[in-house]
Design goal:
The complex is a heterodimer. By secondary structure, chain A is an all-alpha fold. The C terminus of chain A is likely disordered. Chain B folds into two domains: about 130 residues, Phage tail protein beta-alpha-beta fold, CATH 3.55.50.30; about 140 residues, Sandwich (Jelly Rolls). Chain B contains nine helices and 20 strands. In chain B, strands 3, 4, 5, 6, 7, 8, 9, 10, 11, 12, 13, 14 and 15 form a 13-stranded mixed sheet that branches. In chain B, strand 8 and strand 9 form a beta hairpin. In chain B, helix 1 crosses helix 3. The chains are: A mainly alpha, B alpha+beta.
């Protein structure tokens, strides 16, 4: 990653990712036919990735919601047949986040401990490679030598590790802020994920 | 027509590219393939951004230290959420013994403002309703109280980094020792340690310090400025200092679970480490204690730091329970 890319990634990590579960909850509360929540989130992130600069964004959470909203609008317009209630729903979406809710939600995003737990839950070989890469900071080449596997296999393990983190943190994970409204959905998501993990 | 990739397929590809980029520079051919992938779907760039962000976040695993034992973090089968009140803490220690301390913290009292705390060695990000966040360093606590007119956070003790989302109508006010720091939008650190005067460091934006009791005068602090608040409430003149961006980064390295030193004495470094764990570094030799230290270290790994120091200064390291003793070889002989 170039320095500028790293800067954008860091901004995203600190300012956008913590709000993903709130966004997911908001999007899931009122599902729109033919609109997949995960597609919307990825596409919204694409828009953030392509911005010239993020300096002007003073209010990242609101901005994220607004971008997601614009993605939905685009999707709905793109669809050939727009069911009339979909448009209604869009209007409701417009306001749903303004609803009063408890003043603040400090469900902890205890990152490092969560990270330790996520790494601990990885499949064994992936875990070994990932620990050598991230905890011990060894380059992939050196990990290959140490584990007596090819560099390509190390790369595959790192990729699996990253995907594992996406599943752990990104999709219905449990490290982010939650409103009481989304908590139920979150629990459902977490249980689903826990089952998924146990298959490894 | 080809089947459209699912968001999961895209995440998979984004992880593959993240791992490939982590391995080393792309060949020209790979660069073409990478660009083609990015262009192929409007979700690609976003998925890549998230994959890279999580990969970046995982870099902080270094702070788990060499002693990290993943087995200690494997979870027993139990429900992940017992309820909202279950606040779990982060412990940086990799030792199995530390796992016992991963228990629920107290329940906050929203009416009086919610109190959020960390214990020694913990770090915690507290996302707030308005999009602002507070990152708490080790042994810190804040009280959060939002109302229509004000977003107010009181730093009760320790160190916190505030990333304040813009809201012109509702200022964000940090109270510390009866002093008020006010902003519409900024990113800044406030530190209140027992031994030292309160220290404010502004990373981005502008923070105004209310000066004097009832007067409305205020002192504006811009990016890359640091201010030490004197004890006396009105008398002393407080002079903000401009500091280099690199120094700001160093001061804030704890956000990544790291401690950065540049010319601090070994004694000062040892004191800093003492904030993060129960392990104490003792330097018996006063000359050694005055040696300048430079480098980036895992905050939770005082032993690793001790070893590095022993190596650099040709000192001898002895460990006795929770105490690490450093002595100069010459002095020891």
């Amino acid at each position: 990653m170039s320095g500028a890319d790293r800067e954008r990634t860091r901004w995203f990590l600190r300012n956008i990712l913590p709000h993903e579960s709130a966004l997911r909850g908001w999007l899931s509360r009122r599902p729109l036919p033919g609109v997949d929540v995960d597609d919307v989130i990825q596409e919204a992130y694409s828009i953030l990735a392509e911005l010239e600069t993020v300096e002007g964004i003073r209010y990242p959470r609101a901005y994220l919601f607004q971008v997601a909203r614009s993605v939905i609008t685009r999707h709905v317009r793109r669809a050939r047949i727009v069911p009339i209630h979909t448009v209604d729903d869009l209007e409701r979406l417009e306001h749903s986040d303004d609803a009063p809710s408890p003043e603040q939600h400090t469900i902890d995003r205890d990152e490092l401990r969560q990270l330790a737990r996520a790494i601990a839950a990885m499949p064994l070989k992936t875990r070994e490679a990932f620990i050598l890469r991230r905890v011990k900071d060894l380059p992939q080449r050196e990990i290959a030598a140490r584990m007596r596997i090819s560099e390509n296999t190390v790369e595959t393990h790192i990729s699996r590790g990253v995907l594992f983190l996406i599943d752990w943190f990104g999709r219905g994970g449990n490290k982010r802020s939650q409103t009481s409204k989304t908590l139920e959905a979150e629990i459902a998501g977490i249980d689903g994920r826990a089952r998924h993990q146990s298959r490894h | 027509m080809a089947e459209r990739d699912t968001s999961r397929d895209i995440d998979q590809a984004a992880s593959d590219w993240t791992a490939r980029l982590d391995r080393g520079p792309l060949t020209p051919k790979e660069t073409d393939a990478f660009q083609a992938w990015l262009r192929a779907d409007p979700r690609s760039r976003g998925a890549l951004l998230r994959a890279q962000a999580l990969s970046m976040m995982s870099e902080s695993a270094q702070a788990l230290g060499d002693g990290f034992n993943p087995v200690a973090f494997e979870e027993a089968r139990r429900p992940r959420f017992a309820g909202l009140s279950r606040r779990q803490a982060l412990t940086w220690t990799g030792s199995a013994a530390a796992v016992a301390s991963l228990v629920a913290l107290g329940v906050a009292l929203p009416a009086a403002g919610a109190v959020v705390s960390t214990r020694r060695g913990e770090i915690r990000l507290v996302p707030l309703k308005d999009g602002s966040t507070v990152l708490l360093n080790t042994e810190s606590s804040v009280r959060v109280k939002y109302d229509d007119g004000q977003r107010r956070v009181t730093l009760l003790q320790g160190e916190a980094y505030f990333s304040v989302a813009r809201d012109e109508r509702r200022p964000f006010v940090v109270e510390v020792d009866g002093r008020r720091l006010r902003t519409a939008q900024a990113a800044f650190r406030v530190r209140k340690l027992d031994a030292d005067p309160v220290d404010v460091l502004v990373n981005e934006g502008q923070v105004d310090l209310t000066v004097g009791g009832r007067t409305t005068a205020s002192l504006a602090l811009g990016a890359n400025t640091r201010l030490t608040l004197s004890d006396s409430r009105d008398g002393a003149v407080e002079q903000p200092r401009l500091i280099a961006p690199e120094a700001v980064t160093r001061e804030l390295a704890w956000r990544e679970g790291k401690l950065a030193f540049e010319g601090e004495t070994l004694k000062q470094a040892a004191e800093t480490f003492a904030r993060y764990s129960d392990t104490r570094i003792q330097i018996r030799d006063p000359d050694l204690a005055r040696e300048p230290v430079t480098g980036l270290f895992a905050a939770n790994d005082p032993v690793g730091f001790g070893r590095a120091i022993a190596h650099v200064f040709d000192a001898r390291l002895a460990q006795d329970g929770d105490t690490i003793v450093l002595t100069r070889r010459a002095a020891a002989e």
